[in-house]
Design goal:
Layout (H helix, E strand, L loop, with lengths): L1 E2 L1 H4 L9 H9 L14 H7 L9 E5 L7 H9 L3 H17 L1 H15 L4 E4 L13 E2 L6 E2 L1 H26 L1
Parallel strand pairs: 1-2, 2-3
Antiparallel strand pairs: 4-5
Helix pairs in contact: 3-6, 4-5, 5-7, 6-7
Amino acid sequence: AIGDSYVAGTGALSGEAYPQVLDGRMQIVLDDFAAVPGADTLDLMEQLAVLDEDTDLVTLTIGGNDIPWGATVVQCLGAPDTTCLTIIEGVEGLIESTLPAKLEAAYEAVSAAAPNAHVVVAGYAHLFSPEFGDYTVPGTALMMSVDEQEAANDAADLLNATIAEAVAEHEN
């Protein structure tokens, strides 16, 4: 299990990390858990040491910190709609311009480190449910409007589509 906080089970996720849940439910022997919260595609290279030619399964989620997704959400919680939407547009620009090459390099490195492995790449979840109205952080003035939440979810969809496209191109 390699990647960022989504794999490590911290950050936006709580409870057990998904590779550990998969390990328990599917009875897969999870030998190495190298995921690190905050990891980006460059940090991923340090995690590759746990992989080798005997590795048969790799789970991976990476890319969110390259754009940077977590910082964007935090900024949006304290910003007016116009500022947040501008920040999200900037993130979408990074997703479209710089992220594909970073993902391709990461996938190439994983393939080289674990040439016989089946690699499972997972994306990122929607963090917000705009159908329930404005999101507020209890006990604070921090909030995200419905428009901001929809824009954030749209950016997550773009991120996931970009990841899926990079995976498909890597497989060819």
